Amino acid sequence: MENTKEIHDLIVTDNIPSILEFKEIIRDIATNPNVVALKERVQHNNKSRYYHCLCVSYYTYCICKKLKLDYISAARGAMLHDFYYYDWRDKNVENQKKFHAFRHPRIALNNASDLFELNNIEKDIILKHMWPLTIKLPSYKESYIVTLVDKYCATYELFKNFKK
Ligand SMILES: [Fe+2]
Ligand SMILES: [Fe+2]
After folding, report:
1. pTM above 0.85, yes or no
2. CB contact burial 60-98 (16+ within 10 A = b; e otherwise)
3. What residues are neighbours of ligand 1 (ion), with CB under 5 Å?
């Protein structure tokens, strides 16, 4: 995996075969205007929610492909795992921050189901990605990988900002 170049830039610009395949797998999701709107939502520090989902999706794709898992469902589910629009930091909404971790997976799943035909792995990935915070165990290996990659990417996005 790339370490010197921003992964987002790599995905957007490079044309090496694995990235072309990845882009093709998520194309309909990544270009849907409702998903593209996540570029306007801040996830961690100055990174957009779209960027975060794209990174989680790409790393998930790489790992699942290496492990011979269902990398297509994994990448697609990961791209939609944080498909919600509200700002969890909004102090004007009561209990927004408190319950965010528990409620946004269901909101993301509802939003994703409205727009895309999801299989069971994709649904499980979206709904259980906050595990172990949300107690219900993921049902697929692909879902466990997304829980790990999501935490890795979130930590990286936060850490990068501290370094600056
Ligand atoms: Fe999330
Ligand atoms: Fe996330």
Report:
1. yes
2. bbbbbbeeebbbbbbbbbbbbbbbbeebeeeeeeeeeee
3. 82
37 burial type by CB count under 10 A (0-12 exposed, 13-18 middle, 19+ buried): middle
Q: Give 154 Cα–ligand 1 centroid separation in angstroms.
A: 9
Residue with tokens 């100055």: 46
Ligand nearest to the CA of residue 146, numbered in listed order: 2
Q: What residues does 47 pair with on adjacent strands?
A: 44
Beta-sheet strands, E only, within 9-139: 42-44, 47-48
Q: What is the pLDDT of residues 28-71, one digit of tens each?
A: 999 999 999 999 888 877 789 999 999 999 999 999 999 999 99
Q: What is the DSSP letter of 3?
A: S
- Domains and their CATH numbers in the chain: 7-163 (1.10.3210)
Q: How far is the CA of 98 from the centre of ligand 1 (A)?
A: 14
